[in-house]
Amino acid sequence: MSIDETTAARVAKLARIKVEPEALPGLAAEFNTILGFIEQLNEVNVDGVEPMTSVTPMKLKRRQDQVTDGNQQGRVLSNAPDAREGFFAVPKVVE
């Protein structure tokens, strides 16, 4: 696949990037270089290779999933303009 100047201009417009007309040939060449790298990656056989999130195998630290209120109700409500009975109070908007 090859990117010409018209396609490069359209991509720049879609990305909302201002590109001067004299810079379009260089941009098209850069796009073609990137597509060449992608084609090289497509040639690699990845059958049986599991996806990775990092180049080194790592286990995430896990903790017990417990639901708590955080014991910070007073601090949370201290900045509220109006709080009643431990909740935020808001004006009625539906009649």
TrEMBL record:
<protein>
    <recommendedName>
        <fullName>Aspartyl/glutamyl-tRNA(Asn/Gln) amidotransferase subunit C</fullName>
        <ecNumber>6.3.5.-</ecNumber>
    </recommendedName>
</protein>
<dbReference type="InterPro" id="IPR003837">
    <property type="entry name" value="GatC"/>
</dbReference>
<keyword id="KW-0436">Ligase</keyword>
<dbReference type="InterPro" id="IPR036113">
    <property type="entry name" value="Asp/Glu-ADT_sf_sub_c"/>
</dbReference>
<comment type="subunit">
    <text>Heterotrimer of A, B and C subunits.</text>
</comment>
<keyword id="KW-0067">ATP-binding</keyword>
<keyword id="KW-0648">Protein biosynthesis</keyword>
<dbReference type="Pfam" id="PF02686">
    <property type="entry name" value="GatC"/>
</dbReference>
<comment type="similarity">
    <text>Belongs to the GatC family.</text>
</comment>
<keyword id="KW-0547">Nucleotide-binding</keyword>
<comment type="function">
    <text>Allows the formation of correctly charged Asn-tRNA(Asn) or Gln-tRNA(Gln) through the transamidation of misacylated Asp-tRNA(Asn) or Glu-tRNA(Gln) in organisms which lack either or both of asparaginyl-tRNA or glutaminyl-tRNA synthetases. The reaction takes place in the presence of glutamine and ATP through an activated phospho-Asp-tRNA(Asn) or phospho-Glu-tRNA(Gln).</text>
</comment>
